[in-house]
Chain length determinant protein (Flavobacterium saccharophilum), 359 residues
Amino acid sequence: MDNTPTKNEEITLKDLIQKVKEWYLYFLYKWKIIVIAAIIGFALGLTYAIIKKPIYTATLTFALEDEKGAGGLGGALGFASTFGVDLGGGSGGGIFTGSNLAELFKSRSMVEKTLLTPVKVNGRLISLAEMYIQNNDWREKWRDNQRYSSVKFLPNSKRKNFTRDQDSILGLMYTDLSKSGLSVIQKDKKISITTMDVSSTNELFAKYFCEALARQVGKFYVEAKSKKARMNMSILERQVDSVRGELNSAITGVAVANDNTFNLNPALNVRRAPSARRQVDVQANTAILTELVKQSELAKVTLRKETPLIQVVDRPILPLKKEKLGKVKGTLTGGFIAVFLTLLVLGVRRLLNELDLKV
């Protein structure tokens, strides 16, 4: 059995200080390389700060109207169900609340429809998609590419008629915007106010896109939530027209039957039966029409109650919030990164050399 005592390899404070001193002298010996790296970093940081376009952020806040119950209207809606009409007390758009509404704003369908919205730029009417392409200089990049050079996005174009190349370009725009250009958050769950931010290097694009997206989503949201009430109102209006036609026909029938029995022999009462039947039809259709008109007006009230559902609180106002990397900050950041990377490379090289010597 080997009873040789093991060597104590614990690092003392003196050894640690010695090690730090060696590293300091090593880096001091390489001061020329570090200074050159710092100068290059300063230059690159300054250049980046100069050529980097500022980021403009358009902010729009809106409040979502709280859903209200039908209250006292509930009892009056019962009669409508006998005609196959469900006016209901709820809304057809309950799924679009909270985080679901935020996802609706960031959905590809809403973003692409917004990109096809017309805007006026320099006296020309173009789509936001074309404005986005111009802002990112994509036309210059596609100059030698016949596949994309002829692609155009006209305002209010029909999405279903787009080519594969147009779909691909719109998809790229959506990806860029959803990753860094579009943010929809509810800052406080206790407050039903949602904030939407749109960031872009083009101040006008940020403002136009922010407002157009709010209009697009608002329109879709209103249609979704009022769809059921709109359908019910349409059914009731058709039934009112149908019953009114029947009532008019019955009134005409009573008049015709009365004409046929004018100066009729009192003994021939059977000839008065058609007039009596028509009178019953008039009374029944009058009662039905009265109720249907009431329900039709109630459906109109319900539809008005559903809209508007999104109330804009604050709109983006020019000049927008601007974020730009300052020259001093860019220069110092570039120099710091360059020096840090240089020290890291030099340190790794020294460690590798020491390992080679030990081996």
Notes: Confidence is low (pLDDT under 50) at residues 4-8, 68-93. The CA atoms of residues 222 and 307 lie 6 Å apart. The chain has two domains: 13-50+326-358, 53-323.
